[in-house]
């Protein structure tokens, strides 16, 4: 059982960015993917999720042993794989609560005619989660991410994920743009996802969030290749020494 990439060679719009990536995220665990800017972390996130602009040249993505390489994102989501975006986008004209309800009802198989309607139980859960994540309850009635601050967008992403109970989650820089209290809140939400049984791949170029959620495994990606793997001490070493040992020049790449 795991979310897995095997020998993944892939990239956006015909470019080869990932050059044979192997990674494994077991359920109920946190794997940290670290690497300097431009090393291919977001490319891996989008390729795992099946973003239509990213093409797999060879290798495969597996969910609990089943290849999903050719499947579109919504089909992967239906099977429990979800993504938290680095920069969550605005969805004007759609209220956050209806957006959540549509995703929730689709995931848990509610009558298609009711798809965007939040049932009272869901509304109650969403309000409780909003409060815990430090979002004002009135934000549920606002348009998705429209006028949300960077930190509010990240909290809103975690709210959706906690409701949707993914089996596997890829979180692309979940702490970017957050103040220190925000990092703690997001870290608490990640721990909760793991307690729900999810396998979480946390993408980050520095180890700040990993002070609050200890990964069971750390993978280092440089220039589209896995160049090192280890326990949480590897993240601490990178925090102190940077990526010089892998890039050779102290530069980002
Ligand atoms: N659409 C595209 N066309 C061409 N090159 C691209 C495209 N998208 C990404 N790249 C390149 O692919 C490489 C990897 O980008 P990616 O966003 O995956 O890196 P990253 O590790 O997530 O970086 P960061 O830490 O800065 O977010 C970069 O050199 C980037 O410029």
Automatic annotation (TrEMBL):
Signal peptide: none
InterPro entries: AAA+_ATPase (IPR003593), ABC_transporter-like_ATP-bd (IPR003439), ABC_transporter-like_CS (IPR017871), FeS-cluster_ATPase_SufC (IPR010230), P-loop_NTPase (IPR027417)
Domain spans labelled ABC transporter: 3-248
Keywords associated with the record: ATP-binding, Nucleotide-binding
Keyword Transport set for record: no
UniProt cross-references to Gene3D superfamilies, sorted A to Z: P-loop containing nucleotide triphosphate hydrolases
Superkingdom per UniProt: Archaea
Pfam families: ABC_tran (PF00005)
PROSITE patterns: ABC_TRANSPORTER_1 (PS00211), ABC_TRANSPORTER_2 (PS50893)
Segments crossing the lipid bilayer: none
Protein name: Fe-S cluster assembly ATPase SufC
Organism: Pyrodictium abyssi
